[in-house]
Amino acid sequence: MNRLIRYTNPRVSLFRGPAFQNSWSGLESEINHLFESALADIATPSAPRFPVDLYEDKDNVYVRAELPGVNRDAISLEMVDGYLSLNATRKTDEQSFNYTRSIVIPEAVQADRVSATLEHGVLTVTLPKQEQAKPRKIAISVS
After folding, report:
1. Is residue 75 helix, strand or coil?
2. DSSP string for 8-58
3. Do 62 and 126 meet the contact criterion of CB atoms below 8 Å apart?
4. pLDDT tens digits for range 59-87
5. What gap in Å lies between CA 52 and CA 122, rounded to an integer?
6. CA–CA dist 86, 15 (Å, integer)
7. How far apart are CA 111 and CA 105, in angstroms?
């Protein structure tokens, strides 16, 4: 069973880095989201946007992005410092559209085993969890 972690609208993070990762990070991310969504149209009015889903199951974290009309060769993925960066270009007869998103990835991911597939315009990136991050059942003994 998959569990939806969050749905993110296209946005640019205002606050990044270890200085902003603490016990208040949930509140900070909500405040960031408010400011980013309010300022997004002002900051980049002509930039094309695309939704990204982040969800998980017991073994993997998944990132899914809808990129209709984008060829596999025009997509670039990179993991750097806990961020998954997605760059894509879609060319039409009249113009070219460049898409860029950066998504914060949990630390408990095996970066060397990340894989990606593109099927029917939907990019799915699979990020395997490290063993210690996977949920374990704990047996309860009766004394």
Report:
1. strand
2. E-S---SS-SGGG-STTHHHHHHHHHHHHHHHHHHH-TT-----EEEEE-S
3. yes
4. 899 999 998 888 899 999 998 888 888 99
5. 10
6. 19
7. 10
In this structure, the chain runs to a length of: 143
**Token pair listed for 88:** 């894509």
54 token code pair: 């982040």
Residue 43 φ/ψ, nearest 5 degrees? -70, -40
CA dist., res. 21 & res. 47, Å (int):
28
Q: What is the pTM of this model?
A: 0.61
Distances in whole angstroms, Cα of residue 122 to Cα of each of 32, 102, 130, 132, 134: 27, 17, 25, 30, 26
How confident is the model over 101-118, as pLDDT tens digits?
A: 888 887 788 888 999 999
Backbone Cα Rg of the chain: 18
CA dihedral 137, 141, 142, 143 (to 10 degrees): -150
Residues 6+ apart with CB under 8 A from 46: none
Tokens standing for 35? 């400011």
CATH for 3-130 is 2.60.40.790
Q: Are 67 and 129 in contact (CB under 8 A)?
A: no
User: Where are the domains positioned within the chain?
Assistant: 3-130
Please say whether the beta carbons of 61 and 129 come within 8 A: yes
